[in-house]
Each structure stands twice: as C-alpha cells, then as structure tokens.
C-alpha cells in the first residue's frame, strides 16, 4: 500500500466532520493551508471556526504529521462575496 497523501486525508477528515462543505487543501512537509466553506460557520467567531477545524485534525496535529496549519474559514455568503 502506498504512502498516505496528507492533503487527501485532511480533505477526507474535514469533509466527514463538516457536512455540506467545500474544502481545499494545499501543502506538504507537515505545513498545510485549508480553506473551508460551510454554513456551519454562521454566527461563529473566527476563533470558534478554527476550533472546529483544529478539533477535527487534533490527532494529526498532536502527532506532528501536521506541524503548521493556515486556515481560511468562510460561510457560503462570505465566500461568494470575496
């Protein structure tokens, strides 16, 4: 079996944890950028939004497989207006 592609794994985990979302992941060597668009973020602060994403990826962050994570979290309306 081949090496796990972390971009694909991050995308899969976030898709499972954040329903009805659009997710983009870029990066490598333990440094990733994620953009998550979902209405689950409505009425949430940036910190609350990031906590949702960090919680989903917690075990990979703690293990060091994800060392640095840049997050852009938007509602659908926010995404359409950018």
Q: What does this molecule look like?
A:
The chain is of the alpha+beta class. The protein has one domain (6-80): GMP Synthetase, Chain A, domain 3 (2-Layer Sandwich), CATH 3.30.300. Helices cover 41% and strands 26% of the residues. It contains four helices and three strands. It has helices spanning 6-17, 46-56, 58-63, 76-80, and strands at residues 22-28, 31-37, 68-74. The radius of gyration is 13 Å and the shape is globular. The model has no long low-confidence stretch (mean pLDDT 94).
Strand content: 25-35%
| Tally of strands | 3
Query: Could you say how many structural domains there are in total?
Result: 1
Query: What is the CATH first-level class name?
Result: Alpha Beta
User: What percent of residues adopt helix (DSSP H or I)?
Assistant: 40-55%
What strand order characterises the main sheet?
1-2-3
Order of helices and strands: HEEHHEH
Distance N terminus to C terminus? 40 Å
- The global form is globular
Structural class: alpha+beta
CATH fold-level label: GMP Synthetase, Chain A, domain 3
Q: What Rg do the Cα atoms give?
A: 13 Å
CATH architecture: 2-Layer Sandwich
Unreliable segments of 5+ consecutive residues: none
CATH superfamily: BolA-like
Mean pLDDT: 94
Number of DSSP helical runs? 4
Q: Biggest β-sheet, characterized?
A: 3 strands, mixed
């Amino acid at each position: 079996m081949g090496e796990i592609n972390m971009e694909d794994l991050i995308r899969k985990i976030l898709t499972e944890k954040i329903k009805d979302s659009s997710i983009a992941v870029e990066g490598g060597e333990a440094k990733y950028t994620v953009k998550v668009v979902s209405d689950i973020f409505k009425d949430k602060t940036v910190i609350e939004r990031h906590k949702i994403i960090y919680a989903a990826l917690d075990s990979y962050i703690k293990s060091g497989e994800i060392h640095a994570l840049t997050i852009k979290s938007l509602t659908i309306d926010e995404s359409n207006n950018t």
